[in-house]
Specification:
9-stranded mixed sheet, Rossmann fold, two-stranded antiparallel ribbon, 11 strands, Pimeloyl-ACP methyl ester carboxylesterase, 290 residues, globular, AB_hydrolase_fold, 18% strand
Length: 290
Amino acid sequence: MAGDFIDIFRCTLKKRQTNLTNNFSIVSTNFGKVRVFDSRGNKPVIISVPDGPNIIEHHNNLISKLSHNFRVICFEFIGLGYSYPNFKYDYSFNKASLLVINLMDILRIEKAALCFSCSNGFYAIKTAELFPDRIVHLFLSQTPSINEMVKWTHKSIPKVLRYPIVGQLVNSFSEKKLAKTWYKYALPKDTDKLNFVNPAIKMLNNGGCFCLSGLVQGLENESESVLKVLEVPSTLIWGTKDFTHRRTNNKSILEHLPNCEIIEFENCGHFPELEDTNRYIKLLKERLTT
C-alpha cells in the first residue's frame, strides 16, 4: 500500500525495550520481525493474537490458564506491539495468512487452533481457507462479515486514517491518543480501563507500534474479497456490551463461515476472551477435547 513505507521507516527508528525473558523471543519471518510468547511442550497447540493496541501482556492471565492443557503461542501481529513490518507486508488477507503459516513452520507446528479477534479474524479465516489441513478450529471474537466490518470502520475509526500516507502520518503522532480513546468505547462502562490502557501506553513508550491506519487501509482494500470456509470448525464469541459494535450484525459471519457457532457473552465488551476468561477457556476446552 502507498503509505506502508512510513510505518516501515518509523519502525526502523524505534528501539525495542521489551521483555525477552523466559518464553519470549523475536522471530524473523518473511514479512518482518515478530514478538512471540511460546509456552512450549507437546500439548495441542493454540495460537492466539492480541487485538491491538492489546499486546501479549494483556493475555497473561489467559495464557497462564490455557497452558495447563495446551501449548500456547501468543504473538503480536505485524504492525502491532513490538512486531515491525518489512516491505513484503501489505496488511492483505493473503500476506497475513502466509505470515501465520510461516510462523507455524518456523516453530515446527503442524496443526493449531487459531484464537483471533476483530479484523484479525479475517486473517484466521483466510489461513483456514488456504491451509485447511493445518487449522483444527477457528475461535473468533468480535469478527462479523467483511462488509459489516468495513461499515464498522467507517463509524468507529477516524476518517483521516483511511487515507494512504496522510493516515500513516497522523497515526504516527497520535498512537497513544488512539489507544486511550479505543478502550474508552470498546469496554463496558464499569470496567477498570487502566488495566488495559497502562500496558498499551507502556508498550508505545518503549518502542512498540500501533499501525491502525495500515490495518484499516488493508481492510478497505479487501472489501470485495470472498472468504468461505466449510471444512474447519468455527466458533464466534461476541461481547454484547461492545459500544463500537452496537449496530453490527454478528450473524453476518455466516457469510464466510456457514457452519459457525455463535455464542454471546452478555457482560463483555470488545475483548470477551480477556473480560470473561474462565468462560472462554471452558468453551475452548469443550470444543478442542471432544
